[in-house]
Design brief:
With 470 residues, this protein is an all-alpha fold. Helix content is 66%, strand content 2%.
């Protein structure tokens, strides 16, 4: 058995060093089994190195890398402790495995630790592991400094439970997500949001602006993951984003008046900074504060710099609020042309119908835009509800009885709405109940046989829709 183990170790070392490894003599002291949870101290003299030079990676170091790696792989953590600590102290630049496996060894030691002093020392070592990893392997293209900081923050939150706010971890999370963006782990983003929310709740006045900035950063990263079809975690990211959005909406920080207090001056300070204006507009849109004058100011300034769908939509909303519906129509048309996604395109068409043409009493044009919105996304109950309400408010005839036929076609639209969109069922049923009361009565249609029950009837005027008399 010993011969086999020595052969495995020798092969591992040979594969790394070849025949050119430097040989260094070193004495090894035997240790008792009970001492494996203690940090290993060695009597071997350390090689003299110039200041800022990396430690010399010896043959013995690489042998120890193989030993602790194999032990961790087999979950024999007690056997991994001594060789890992030797490498960690003497040649911390030897191999990335020191830092990918090290936390597992420390976690095992924590599970065995008997005193609070010992636990604290191990937790501090755990944090030090990440600092050394950033020093020696922080430029790794796959796991750069930003990734390492995120892992450090996660372990800090797990083990330093006595720190209620975890302000330090929050700063590490921020730097990590700044660097990793949509490549961040979904679980990390969720923990970042949890920490930020707890900090905000401890002092809303002090941490309100920071909390909003954190939310934007986290939401952007989750959105990137959701939209990345190659990311296997996109489904989980969608669930986390819905949860985080709900938490943020209920936090009080999303209050429109509070946002105005925080961002009014920021907009004025960034009238020539399109990137910053875009961030502010995106935030206002997310929390449904697009009726704010601060949002309008940001949209107007951004549109002058470089028109986007977002800036055009902001200018449209501002114009509609001021009653300049013709200008609003033009801006919504621009927003539609500039938008990429189906959701945005359908929204801008719908908004043009709802907020512009309807108020201009151009019902036929409003219906055209609502139908165009349905062509983009067919299962929008809101479009059918809007058309139905416009039908119900119309009077295409001079005859009061014939005017009541509009309620038939209106209810047809309400029924269609709930057929295609379960989210509007309750609203559609309320409208059906309300407007069915105004159907022509049997007595009213007695002298108008064309309105007999069950017969087809085409409602005139701008409506021009055929329905069934009832």
């Amino acid at each position: 058995m010993k011969t086999k183990l020595l052969l495995v170790v020798s092969l591992c070392v040979a594969s790394v060093l070849g025949c050119s490894a430097q040989k260094v003599k070193k004495d090894k002291k035997s240790k008792k089994d009970a001492a494996v949870v203690e940090q290993v101290k060695t009597d071997a003299p350390k090689a003299e190195v110039k200041e800022d030079a990396d430690p010399v990676v010896t043959k013995e170091c690489l042998t120890d890398v193989s030993l602790f790696s194999e032990s961790v792989k087999n979950k024999q953590y007690a056997d991994a402790v001594e060789p890992w600590y030797r490498v960690y102290e003497q040649c911390p630049n030897a191999n990335k495995a020191i830092y990918s496996q090290g936390p597992k060894i420390i976690e095992w030691q924590l599970s065995q630790a008997q005193t609070e002093e010992e636990k604290l020392r191990l937790k501090q070592t755990l944090m030090e592991i990440y600092d050394k990893r950033m020093k020696y392997f922080g430029n790794d293209p796959k796991y750069p400094k930003a990734y390492i900081l995120g892992e450090k923050a996660m372990d800090y939150c797990q083990y330093f439970t006595e720190d209620e706010l975890k302000l330090q971890a929050r700063d590490w999370f921020e730097e990590s997500v700044d660097g990793m963006g949509g490549q961040s782990k979904v679980s990390l983003l969720n923990k970042y949001a949890e920490v930020s929310n707890n900090i905000y709740k401890s002092d809303p006045e002090k941490y309100g602006e920071q909390y909003i900035a954190d939310y934007q950063k986290i939401s952007d990263a989750l959105t990137a993951i959701v939209n990345d079809q190659t990311n296997k975690n996109s489904g989980a990211a969608k669930q986390y984003k819905d949860y985080i959005d709900q938490i943020f909406a209920n936090s009080g920080a999303a209050n429109c008046q509070k946002l105005d207090e925080l961002y009014a001056q920021a907009v004025q300070d960034n009238l020539q900074n399109g990137e910053e204006l875009a961030k502010i507009m995106k935030l206002y849109r997310r929390v449904r504060c697009t009726e704010s004058d601060v949002y309008f100011a940001a949209a107007e300034a951004s549109h002058k710099l470089q028109p986007t769908a977002e800036s055009a939509a902001g200018c449209a909303a501002m114009s509609a609020k001021k009653g300049d519906y013709k200008a609003a129509v033009d801006y919504y048309d621009q927003a539609f042309e500039l938008a990429d996604g189906a959701d945005d395109k359908s929204n801008y068409l719908y908004n043009n119908a709802l907020y512009c043409y309807q108020y201009l009493n151009q019902y036929s044009r409003a219906r055209d835009y609502a139908n165009r919105s349905l062509e983009v996304i067919p299962d929008q109950g809101r479009c059918y509800l809007l058309i139905g309400l416009m039908y119900a408010s119309s009077k295409p005839y001079n005859d009061p009885v014939l005017n009541k036929t509009v309620f038939w076609v209106a209810v047809d639209q309400f029924n269609k709405a709930k057929q295609v969109d379960p989210t509007v069922v309750n609203e559609a049923n309320k409208f059906i109940q309300a407007y069915s009361k105004f159907f022509p009565t049997t007595e009213e249609v007695f002298f108008q046989p064309e309105l007999g029950k069950g017969k087809p009837f085409t409602v005139g005027g701008w409506i021009q829709r055929t329905t069934t008399c009832r």
